[in-house]
Amino acid sequence: MDNATRELIMKALLFTPTVDGGWGLPMTFWGEPGTGKSAIVVQAATKFGLFPIVLAPNSRSPMDILGLPTVDEETYGMPVTSYASPDWAMECLKRERCLLFIDERNTADPALQAPMLRILRDKVVGELQLPGGVRMMSACNPADQAANGWEEAPALANRSGHMEWGAPGVSDWAAYMSKCMTAVPGSKNADKSAGVDLDVSIAEAI
Known about the structure:
With about 210 residues, this protein is α/β, with parallel strands linked by helices. Helices cover about 35% and strands about 20% of the residues. It has eight helices and nine strands. Helix 1 crosses helix 2 (about 35-45). It is globular and about 65 Å long. The termini are close together. Residues about 185-205 have low confidence and may be disordered.
């Protein structure tokens, strides 16, 4: 699958209306490490006018997903447990039209998988309802190739669709090389490409 086709698929997923009045069909992209999943998804969201918010569960604790338990003494006139919403959820609330991209989702410890269930299904984080304009996508490497990868529980896996993400094709790589590697450093043509910014991600080129 070339990058243009991926982009069309992502656009259709992001702008499909849902039965509850929201937007977006959750999708998980599976592919080998280094094939541009994260970069291309984030770039596509930006291109389509959606602010990308990246959540990496492998660097989070369960409280970073569900929210920090706090004591609320005002709502009911007695102490009850409430949850302080995590920073990424408040950013979703602020942006309203955005993509919550859960990167390397299957590197989440099993203790993190349960708090993600309602997020993916109902867009609810602890006690916070996210706006309908928040879309959700995820990316995963195969468990045997991921850093501390886990097999996802069926309940979590069933919260989204699943699509294979192949390595960039010959045409994609050719486009990248022609854009970013126009001259061999030190060659007679190097001065002509001196103005080319070689620090360009593959996602920009393909």
